[in-house]
Amino acid sequence: MDRVVNILKQEKILKSSGTAKDIEFYRPKPSSSSATGYKGRIGIFEILTISEDIKNLTIKKASTSEIKAEALKSGMRTMAEDGLVKAAQGFTSIEEVLRVIMD
To answer: What pTM was computed for the model?
Structure first.
């Protein structure tokens, strides 16, 4: 959650003095145009940029956890983090993010 808080601060969604408790997550509201409260679709993504370090780890047949650790250190945003950021922005709900990432 600390990584999500830092992302929200970097993107100025959360004040620099804010904490996880200050994040306002939204819930869908059913309406006449949408019985579920959701409208349209938005993707949540996890993109691994192949840096020189990642390339070298791959060549050395490093474990998935080693590659992931390096990717996170290099600034990769996980799918869960991207989803939580979009939930904090009001594009989706935490429930919908969890539904998608748990499949």
So the answer is: 0.81
